[in-house]
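input
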Amino acid sequence: MAPTRTRLTHPQLAALARHAFGLTAGGAALPGADEYEDAEGVLVATRTDGALAVREVPRWRSPESVRAELERRGWAGVAAWVGAPPPDAAGLPAVVLALLPVAGTAPDSAAISTLAAAWAPVARDRAVLVVPVPVTATAPEVAWPELAAAYGAAELAGVGTPAPLATGGRAVLFTGLSGAGKSTIAARLVELLLEAGRTVTLLDGDEVRTHLSAGLGFAKADRDTNVRRIGWVAGQIAKHGGIAVCAPIAPYAATRADARALVEEQAGPGSFTLVHVATPLAECEARDRKGLYAKARRGEIAEFTGISDPYEEPTDADVTLDTRALSVDESARAVLTHLGLG
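output
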């Protein structure tokens, strides 16, 4: 039987790193499989007879390598600081090991670069070594003094206010039946954001199908791929501080959750907003200028959402819009208010 292989998420890769570095007791909590790979498909660990063997730990520097670098630099009695530097860095020691707890964040996240860059002014008049570590800031899996000691610090000088990393970028995904009003409301939201001086990219469902997802059909696997691609692109935009507005049908709950995870891994918790345009099926059919619902009812269109293919109504929507009671402008402004950008 061929070995089972699974791709690890960023939090799972961080757990693998903690296990490999001996930072936490017990094994890493990973899904059942024989082989594990990172986001690029590189084999990082195997499991044989229940025993986990780590082949490599991408991205993370081991405590051993950091201790070796401190020794090469001739830094003795190094003090560690966890997280961002304090507002007043005057009281920091002359030599600092800055440990950035960024477990669960994508390796190329702009949030990590922003956090590391905050140490640049501090490094002008003191020796600073910045090291990202596979620990969660808000719920550390390792006590801060133990973490500092593992990476070669003689003492813990302090801990910055733990806070989730965030780039300031956002992704808004509209979901709803065909004809619900998603594209129209999304376009108006883009106008309002541009008027407010924001950098915005619109990923409309039909245009994405023409370009990004050309060649995909409407079977469940193809629909899932389409929404995940949208989520990934939206995450890239949000990662760099922009705002992505997306308007696919996105009929399946699990795939919408995947899109949320793809964005928040890149731009930080809370960077994804799910908007359910909850126009009822009967209203969507009544508005149907293209006659698509009629064709679907006659069996001329296969796998049509709401007729011959299911639409899983969101239970986790951040904003729900009833377009029977709200105009396009009122709907868009409701989303803008939720985003805190109105």
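quick obs: The chain has three domains: 5-54, 63-159, 170-339.
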